[in-house]
Design goal:
globular, binds protoporphyrin IX containing FE, alpha+beta, 5-stranded mixed beta sheet, 3-stranded antiparallel beta sheet, single chain, Cytochrome p450
């Protein structure tokens, strides 16, 4: 399935985020680059790309939307055509200012704390349902039996899509986010299948409006004008892509940590009121999302001669573990009080779904800890992490006791 990716020999000048070692354990790689003479790595792969690892550099680039465009936020061999701007393939994440502002504002009411609060009871009921289906087994796969299902159900419910289509959503997500290596034709096919699916759903909502997020978007306006079919379709594609893989990864990584760190697990079972604080620390330490930017014009960035159309990867998880930014950055301190992490990004594109993600993560952990207070990792060698820009466990064998 992959194009040519020889194993990486020198991370400073030939990095590749799809390398198996990067997927399995990127932390020492980021540490090595960060503490070297040049904390911004380079690669000629993907037509040329850079990888900052210090919090200060990741932050400066994320805030500088003049020199670093979001025209594409998934790095692949192909750059989307310039005509894709200003909306881009998945507004608002793929839009630069000034288009970005309206495309983002229109979404925010649907993801406010009040709107998210209304989803908590049904999310908990669904977690309990998944848990009940696991009871009686010794070992379960916490990634496939549990984590991956929760965000799919939540977003499908919000959008008013058929709940039985869960498997299709997951396929779309994996193909689009993890399939960056696919040849352009195969990539177009998977995008085409996603947009065809969305076209049918949106047409159905146009004909039969209801009280859900899809109908809300179809009625929404920016500067007095409705969004239009294309904009709505692309935003919904973003919500599926941004909402599923990310949250599934965060839930899985948190369960991985607690299964392999009995002290932290026991503390959360004994002090459930600590879960919200622990959620922030787990988000920081296992931040799943790395985003990309395209350089808009030649620029010298902290001594790096960046060229127009070079990629820059923004590894928010590496920024979160920068010891210059935070003391004990490499340790998981489950009751860490001051925790200004960037798992949800930095700058104008900061995650619009963060309240929803936090609720899902907290509820998923609370329900799990309540049901399986003594769980442990069943087979450390059986754990598999996804490669690419969204990192989380895709296989997670856990003994539920
Ligand atoms: C733990 C789970 C999640 C993490 C770690 C996460 C992380 C991120 C990050 C790092 C960005 C910034 C992108 C950039 O700078 O290019 C982002 C943007 C975004 N996220 Fe999330 N996300 C999560 C869950 C969600 C959920 C559940 C939704 C909604 C269903 C969502 C919707 C969005 C949207 C719409 C944007 C684009 C905002 C903009 O461009 O203004 N995310 N997310």
């Amino acid at each position: 399935m992959t194009t040519d990716h020889p194993p990486v020999e020198d991370w400073a000048v030939d990095f590749d985020h799809t390398d198996e070692r990067y997927a399995a354990n990127p932390f020492p790689i980021w540490d090595e680059i960060r503490s070297s003479a040049c904390p911004i790595a380079r690669t000629e792969r993907y037509g040329g790309a850079w990888l900052p690892t210090r919090h200060a550099d990741v932050s400066a680039i994320a805030y500088d939307t003049d020199h670093f465009s979001s025209r594409s936020i998934l790095m692949s061999a192909v750059r989307p055509p310039l005509e894709a701007a200003p909306m881009g393939i998945a507004p608002p994440i793929s839009s630069d200012p000034p288009f970005h502002g309206g495309a983002r504002r229109v979404l925010l009411p649907a993801f406010s704390p009040q709107a998210v609060g209304k989803l908590e009871a049904s999310t908990r009921a669904y977690c309990d349902e998944l848990i009940d289906a696991m009871r009686g087994r010794e070992v379960v796969d916490a990634a496939t039996d549990y984590a991956q299902n929760i965000p799919v159900r939540v977003i499908a419910t919000m959008l008013g899509f058929p709940l039985g289509d869960d498997d299709r959503f997951r396929e779309f997500v994996v193909e689009v986010i993890e399939g960056v290596d696919l040849p352009p034709e195969a990539r177009m096919d998977s995008m085409g299948a996603l947009y065809e699916y969305l076209r049918v759903q949106i047409e159905d909502h146009t004909a039969h409006p209801r009280d859900d997020l899809t109908s809300f978007l179809l009625n929404a306006e920016i500067d007095g004008e409705q969004l239009g079919f294309e904009h709505v379709g692309r935003t919904i594609a973003l919500l599926l892509l941004a909402g599923i893989d990310t949250t599934w990864s965060a839930i899985g990584a948190s369960l991985f940590h607690l299964a392999s760190t009995p002290g932290d697990r026991e503390r959360l079972v004994a002090e459930p009121e600590l879960v919200p604080t622990a959620v922030e620390e787990l988000l920081r330490a296992y931040a799943p999302v790395t985003m990309a930017r395209l350089v808009t014009e030649d620029i010298d960035f902290n001594g790096c001669p960046m060229k127009a159309e070079d990629w820059v990867l923004l590894p928010f998880p590496a920024a979160n573990r920068d010891p210059e930014f935070l003391a004990d950055a490499d340790e998981v301190v489950i009751d860490r009080e001051v925790n200004r992490h960037s798992a949800f990004g930095l700058g104008i594109h900061r995650c619009a779904g963060s309240h929803l993600a936090r609720m899902e993560l907290r509820v998923a952990l609370e329900a799990w800890l309540d049901a399986f207070p003594t769980f442990t990792l069943a087979d450390a060698h059986g754990v598999r992490w996804s490669g690419g820009q969204v990192r989380g466990p895709r296989r997670l064998p856990i003994a539920i006791g």
